[in-house]
User: What shape does this take?
Amino acid sequence: MKIVITGVTGFVGTNLKNYLSSYEVEPLSIRYKPNQKIELKTDVVIHLAGKAHDLKKVSQPKDYYEANFELTKQLFDAFLNSEASVFIFMSTVKAVADTVEGVLTEEAYPNPKTHYGIAKRQAEEYILSKELPIGKRVYILRPCMIHGPGNKGNLNLLYQLVSKGFPWPLGSFENKRSFLSIENLCFVIRELLKQSAIHSGVYNVADDNFLSTNELILILSESLGKKVTIFKIPVKVIVAIASLGNVLKIPLNKEKLQKLTESYRVSNNKIINAIGKPLPINAKEGLKITFDSFRKI
Assistant: This one.
């Protein structure tokens, strides 16, 4: 089986290429160009390339739509006109919702709020609007926060805090979040390639368990071998400080507080039932592996 992967130099792409080493894997370096025609000579297309969510907010809106929507259209059209049989598109849970009440499932009505999420959703809609020729399978994957060895990402703030011995001041917030180990993501993709009976469609991808930020702090402190103090300062006091942070430019503001304390639970029931196998590692094991890797960087 020959597999073409876009975005192979990124975190997911690098890990996936290694994970699929038993297959013939080729990278496809591609960027959006108007009226571009792409020729594919492969069995499988895994489309990872795109514009990631910009936490520094310096990207222009058109960057997201060109990289995440227009390029996906061009590549999917090429897939439909090729002899390739499988197309896997890496979307995101943010194509559905920026905030979640309850647990996010594939049945939720999409209502993205950011250019990143909207562009990914537009790409999903385009793919879903096309009638698939017989013999072709298409999977739209919506991962939640992906982590793994060497990739600090959004977990970097917590790592820096605990590694420097600072106490955790947000212990009064009882949130629950979903995470996704890179090993579990790669496992899911490999199973989709191996099991031709799995129906085309949209699938959330997440680890089995939901974890609170307080639990993350404890896992991280265990990894570092450092005891961390968790302060349970009243929520109203923390919210007031965060409100001041918007004005005084102190480290904690309302946006950062929301990212650190919000709940975002994602169901993986559909993909697990489709695969018919458990994920290789649970959420705590995966995060422990990620945190252990931070000390080696």
